[in-house]
Write a structure and sequence with these properties.
7-stranded mixed beta sheet, binds ligand DP6, alpha+beta, 3-stranded antiparallel beta sheet
């Protein structure tokens, strides 16, 4: 097995000493339209399938300051210990043992409620570290490094539509994200909060349990292999119904694989299901509205800008 350290040595110069006192960076959160669910390598966060996301306008701002001891503030308050450990374990991959950081990170969207904040978090952190250490690494390299913090973070280095190529190499050097060459300003993705409470199981553990125990997981790579080229075609031709249908069914297929695992994993709350029924009813009545959903109870709406008022009225937003 290749370790993170071994992989990093091939990408970054040594020794890793900060070249400035502090650095700040921003990364957008991203929402997958074709989901990443399952790893072929848990150490390097190498995915079983490719995935495709859309970056949001909002995300995470992170400042890393050289300090005399490690400390971390999340949204102005002391970081929960598990979160701080994850951040500093990640920083340890890049610094020597005498370098300590004060990290201030601000999420514009709720953390750990399925709102994809770890994606923008690790992306903003690697951008800040790149500046602090003066690596001047290219975005492909930074995408690979962000992936080591959290898989979906590799897509947050870019705006617009982004594809994460799964890659096939055991060292993961061909597993990185890249923006698509297409923009679609009419397409809207909007958070529909259902609950901001902490989810019952984090996505990393849930993904692992699904891969190891779900009899439905074997169908997942084929689902993605079918969905990915078709959603890219929908994006290129700006075919909203095709995009919405594929994104929605891809998300539900991901949740179906989790449901069949043991212990079963179910992120839906009663309100999530009621809202899905509401969306399907509105769609049957002619409103072009779809949703996607990640490892949490919240929904993300997909619609076109021209229908914004109708969507908001229909859902009481
Ligand atoms: C459902 O990127 O949080 O949001 O690689 O273990 O950190 P780790 O997982 P993470 O998983 C995201 C899962 C998802 C789908 C997606 O964003 O593609």
């Amino acid at each position: 097995m290749i370790t993170k350290q071994q992989m990093i040595q091939t990408l970054l110069p040594k020794p890793a000493l900060p070249v400035k006192e502090q650095a700040t960076a921003f990364s957008p959160a991203n929402i997958a339209l074709i989901k990443y669910w399952g790893k072929r390598d848990n150490e390097l966060n190498l995915p079983v399938t490719s995935s495709l996301s859309m970056s949001l306008a909002h995300g995470t701002h992170t400042t890393v300051k050289v300090a005399s001891a490690d400390s971390c503030l999340l949204n102005g308050k002391e970081c929960p210990p598990a979160f701080a450990k994850r951040l500093f374990d990640y920083c340890n991959l890049f610094r020597n043992k005498d370098t300590f950081f004060e990290i201030h990170t601000t999420n514009e969207i709720p953390t750990a409620a399925g709102f994809a904040s770890s994606s923008s978090g690790f992306s903003a952190l690697i951008l800040a570290l790149d500046d602090l250490f003066g690596w001047h690494a290219d975005l492909k390299t930074l995408s690979i490094l962000a992936r080591l913090g959290s898989g979906s973070a590799c897509r947050s280095l870019f705006s617009g539509f982004v594809e994460w190529h799964k890659g096939t190499r055991p060292d993961g050097l061909d597993s990185f994200a890249e923006p698509l060459n297409t923009s679609w300003p009419e397409l809207q993705i909007e958070m529909l909060p259902i609950s901001s409470s902490q989810k019952p199981i984090d996505s990393r553990s849930a993904m692992k349990i699904t891969v190891e125990t779900s009899p439905l997981y074997s169908s997942w790579p084929q689902t993605v292999a079918n969905d990915l080229p078709r959603i890219k075609e929908a994006i290129n031709s700006q075919n909203f119904h095709q995009l919405g249908q594929i994104a929605e069914s891809n998300a539900l297929a991901m949740h179906a694989t989790m449901l069949a695992s043991h212990p079963p994993i179910l992120y839906f709350l009663p309100e999530s299901i009621a809202t899905m029924h509401h969306i399907w009813r509105l769609r049957n009545e002619g409103l072009p509205l779809y949703f996607t959903m990640d490892a949490g109870p919240n929904l993300k709406l997909l619609y076109l800008k021209k229908d914004s008022t109708l969507v908001h009225e229909a859902l009481g937003l």
